[in-house]
Amino acid sequence: MTTFTHRCAHPAILFACSIMVATMAQAAPDAAALSRQLAQHSPECGTFQQNRWLADFELDLPSSGSFQRLDQALIWRTETPVRTEILLSQDNAELPPGYRMLLPVMTALLEGDWQRLQDHFQIVTDGELSSWAAKLTPLDSRVAATLPSIQVKGGQQLQHIAMAFADGDRLNIELTPATCEPDPAPQAP
């Protein structure tokens, strides 16, 4: 009977076997360790570069701006091409349903709360803590019919979010931590 080590005795096969063993030894980052790392390095504020592809119109819509995390909310300020500010909060009655659905995902991602994400997604991670990637697949079939998956990447913090929608639309967001800007002083009457 031929053993595994005997099969790997030939130099070319030995090289291939060593690659296989090294690949098997590399494991995806532990979800708990990744969650702790992201929570420890979660920025309160940051900037974003966003690119939205609208498949029906074959139109690319780039934008940029900043964000600030609050308790159970997120302020998303678009600075180009148009200045807008939206409060992403479950308490915001004017928040469109699509934003309301994405709010818990965005805040959980920014905070590194994988437990909350695992309540709604199957998560498969890859890489290592310093350079990781994850694929989030919705557990709810109604959500999956609209948003089949979310791809995220990062290091110490979340750096990239890619959403591919069932209708062909795509949303890519690059995030960079930044110092929070102080609130402007109130104007005297």
Automatic annotation (TrEMBL):
Domain of life: Bacteria
Signal peptide: 1-27
Statement: the UniProt record of this protein carries the keyword Signal: yes
Pfam families: LolA_3 (PF19574)
Entry keywords, A to Z: Signal
Protein's name according to its UniProt entry: Outer membrane lipoprotein carrier protein LolA
Native organism: Halopseudomonas laoshanensis
Taxonomic classification: Bacteria, Pseudomonadati, Pseudomonadota, Gammaproteobacteria, Pseudomonadales
